[in-house]
Amino acid sequence: MRENILSKVSPNPVEKAYVRKVTDKAVKLVAEQADKIHSGLSVMVVGSVAKDTYVYPPDIDIFILFPKETRREDLAKEGLQIGRAVVKDAEERYAEHPYIHGWIDGLEVDIVPCFRVDSPAGLKSAVDRTPFHTRYVLQHISEKQRNEVRILKQFLTGIGIYGAEARVQGFSGYLVELLILKYGSFEDVMLAAQDWRRGTTLWLEEKKGKNEFDTPLVFYDPVDENRNVASALSEDSFAIFLRACDDYLTLPQESFFFPKAVKIWSVKTIRAELQERGSRLLVFSLNRPEMTEDNLYPQLRRTLDGVRRLLESWSFPVVDGAYSIKEKEVVFAFELLNDELPRMRLHKGPPVWTENAQRFLEKWKEKSYGEVFIENGCWVAKVPRTHRTAKELIEKEIKGAALGSDFRTLSGLKIRNHREALRAELKADLTLLLDKTPPWKR
Amino acid sequence: MRENILSKVSPNPVEKAYVRKVTDKAVKLVAEQADKIHSGLSVMVVGSVAKDTYVYPPDIDIFILFPKETRREDLAKEGLQIGRAVVKDAEERYAEHPYIHGWIDGLEVDIVPCFRVDSPAGLKSAVDRTPFHTRYVLQHISEKQRNEVRILKQFLTGIGIYGAEARVQGFSGYLVELLILKYGSFEDVMLAAQDWRRGTTLWLEEKKGKNEFDTPLVFYDPVDENRNVASALSEDSFAIFLRACDDYLTLPQESFFFPKAVKIWSVKTIRAELQERGSRLLVFSLNRPEMTEDNLYPQLRRTLDGVRRLLESWSFPVVDGAYSIKEKEVVFAFELLNDELPRMRLHKGPPVWTENAQRFLEKWKEKSYGEVFIENGCWVAKVPRTHRTAKELIEKEIKGAALGSDFRTLSGLKIRNHREALRAELKADLTLLLDKTPPWKR
């Protein structure tokens, strides 16, 4: 199996030659444009192409190193100008400052301006570190380990947690390389992870920094020991990784690397599953704000969490929630234990002898079912529940929930109750919500 | 109004003379019997008759004082023997040791043996303190205050918290007398209570003890400063008192002293009220164990609390609970927000990286609806709920609840769900559960 995986993830000689050719061309184009605009710029290939640790087809990362005296605005402006001149379908993206993503001869290329600094201690922007990462890996990696990196990257891709971007919150390419440098091989990483816990802290060559990070995994950056290379890894991605390692060691299969596609459930299946579980749906959608995925995903998570807390604080226990991005809207779907509650709720008040007791009594005595009564020395009122259904709650209270900032206008809000959500157009979103089968078990 | 109340609670000359006559007769009978059995015994009238603070008709309390060298068994045996010889319908009751309750010429009489001690510091039994209480009050109370005591006793009777016995958990007669000695009059007690809080601590003549008591009200006993006269007062009785004082000062009415009788709701009314509230009934009954009320009430409370916790721990939120004693059984009734729950419940497991994770997975993976999934780094299983209805829960799990010790056999257990509880034979119990109107507002 190992040979089989390797043959799929390792570029063949034709692919390698093609990547080299396109990279050389890209460097040449960038350098020509750079010379036109600004003297003293240098151009550097970084990332997985430079390190020869990519899985085909790679992103080609070209960095333009500006003198560190350059003003930020100039760096950004000129960087974009150079990028736009050399790639097809140029698109502005953002790291700490903007850069250009586009295509050259069928391969994706990022053209990123950065400051040329003498050491990571002097960096002016987070991307300035990348050239140091590239050099560090090139100095330490063995030929054999390059393929180990590829296997681990593919494993992480297969289980859905490769990439540090906001959508994934998983393992960056550099983190994968450091793990291979530390443990030697893919199999050794699998074995080592058996002993990992939340808070496990790793480093190379005793380059352990002093900072404490509260992340599920810490890996001190060998080129900048104050930085945690695993800072983007979420709790859930970390847990999924441990689970996958465990399952993989029990029964290694190709499905970890190349899982089957998600099977979208039919409305009939969804209905039957919900019937079986006895749980209820609540779905709402909002207009999709115009912004990059890296900005959108954190807002989706914040909104999902905020509405979840809203539902639970009004006694609608949430089984699970999921969000999905469509062309023009974003969809939030919840599975609830209950979407309709009893008419009455208990409202616990202050002790009878406190200042607030009188105010509580006056407020509730008319609205209460029967007399306000005393329990353990405190007033208790039986009051009508404000919102009896989850849909009504969302309608009336969502404006007060902790939402992502670009959702606060509630533009395009559409709320569906259980019956209204059981529609063909939502079946992919509902499958995502209900089907928790991990990729390797599909 | 005050005059009206006073005329009702204060004995008229005929009543006073009759009480005196019966008391004298009782003392004489007891003394005669005592002399037959044991030399050196003395007989003393104590309590409200001795202090002339009773509301007609009083209990006449006759104490037989034994030399303090007497063995406990002899004191108990001889005390009972004397008591039985002088009263009609003699019944054995218990304080710290047994005594006799019965009737003489139509008045209730308690014949209680105790040790004659020189000071409360040397007492051998809690009842030995009573003669000191009687002497203390007689030495300090004014003629006018006797009627203030009567008014306050009647007020407490009316609002349902007069008496320190387990059934009531309210104010003892002695506590009422001390309150009048402290504040001077019924009205002054009402006014003083406006400033009371949980933990309010009172004393007379700087006779404040050093002990700290964790009770809602503390009143240091002037004859034994290590004792809290209000120790029997429950949180709820204390709260009811404060509420009643507040309501009384706002609108003084005879209904505080002489409330209307409870109106038992019809089944139709009960059904309509529950319909309106949207809440549900769960009732169970058990055989009534043979024991005194003072022993039975604490067990009823313990059982009610234990079953309440059982219900809530299985996600049946309890609005309120009530117990009642019938001739042959005891009835526990609960009002629930819900008596039927969704089929599924969420079962939160350990973090993925802990030792227990594997055990959790193996235990739940077959039983779970869909895959066990990860949330915030922890396993979560969607599992079938063990008990979907409150009745089923009680049937299966009541044996594990914290019940009063004499209910643990579950002898005579009969459980009724909502529909089964809506029966005429339970309407008094259900009225008690559902109607929280305080006595003075009936």
List keywords for this structure.
homodimer, 442 residues, 22% strand, 15 helices, 15 strands, 4-stranded antiparallel sheet, 5-stranded mixed sheet, alpha+beta
Q: Any overview of this molecule?
A:
- Two copies of one chain form a homodimer.
- By secondary structure, chain A is of the alpha+beta class.
- Helix content of chain A is 40%, strand content 22%.
- The first copy, chain A, has 15 helices and 15 strands.
- Chain A has helices at 2-9, 13-37, 47-51, 72-86, 130-140, 143-159, 173-183, 186-193, 235-250, 267-277, 293-313, 356-364, 390-397, 418-421, 427-434; strands at residues 42-46, 59-67, 88-94, 98-104, 107-116, 200-202, 217-221, 224-228, 280-287, 318-325, 329-336, 344-351, 373-375, 378-384, 414-416.
- Chains A and B meet through helix 9, helix 10, strand 12 and strand 13 of A and helix 9, helix 10, strand 12 and strand 13 of B.
Largest interface: A-B, 50 and 49 residues
Give the overall shape of chain A, derived from the CA principal axes: elongated
Strand content of chain A: 15-25%
Distance between the termini of chain A: 19 Å
Topology record:
Two copies of one chain form a homodimer.
Chain A: H1 2-9, H2 13-37, E1 42-46, H3 47-51, E2 59-67, H4 72-86, E3 88-94, E4 98-104, E5 107-116, H5 130-140, H6 143-159, H7 173-183, H8 186-193, E6 200-202, E7 217-221, E8 224-228, H9 235-250, H10 267-277, E9 280-287, H11 293-313, E10 318-325, E11 329-336, E12 344-351, H12 356-364, E13 373-375, E14 378-384, H13 390-397, E15 414-416, H14 418-421, H15 427-434
Parallel strand pairs in A: 2-5, 6-7
Antiparallel strand pairs in A: 1-2, 3-4, 4-5, 7-8, 9-11, 9-15, 10-11, 12-14, 13-14
Helix pairs in contact in A: 2-4, 6-7
